[in-house]
Amino acid sequence: MLDPLIRFKDAHAKGIIPDDVFELTMKRFPITIAGINRIEKASGIQYPIAYVEPSLVLSSPNPNSYEFGILFARTIPILFEEKFQVVIQISAPLVAYGLKGTIHAILAHEFLHFLDLMRKISKMELLSDELSGNLFENVYSDETRLFEPRVVFKDRTLLNHITKKFPAGFRDFKLEDKVMKFWADRNLPKSNISLDTNTVKLSAESLSKIKLDPTFIAKLEQLEEKSSKIHKRKLY
Q: What 3-state DSSP class applies to 165?
């Protein structure tokens, strides 16, 4: 089992992350673990591999723009030695400064992205160039997502967190202020991602080699069917 904190501990050992931030993040990390356990219990599906990224992840729509969004977590598809894996990257500032409800909502939100990605892969719908924008959807535009949270999660409090935090894209100004003050202003590590670099190229051939668990696919189909019924109801 990979230690989700391995990169973070390594950055601390190298002196990149100061002691106070290290201790705070370590102390609050159980909230993240509790969130992952809660999502697994509420959905009946195992959470993908997750790890803590020891930097503040920023994205800007284009290199010349001064606008940027903070990406507190992202869902990253990886093809490694012919093996396909989805990894959830959780930024250390979220772990250190996010409220419990916010952390759990973001983890749940990434989980929905993960399901979405797996469904597309199971149906061979992911063409190689499609993965690029998929990770961002303009940081978080969720109008198009397939899976209805209330179909996936049997946990009312968790659902409240999700619907409050993501009515039309995630913003948590208090958290953003904290992160700017305690992380960015102290010149702690930042990584900038421009939207076009974040691409995974999967050929049709490598897509066809990806083996998914049949019970997992059956579960996805079931969730998709229930979700589309809710979507239809919303339209009429």
A: helix
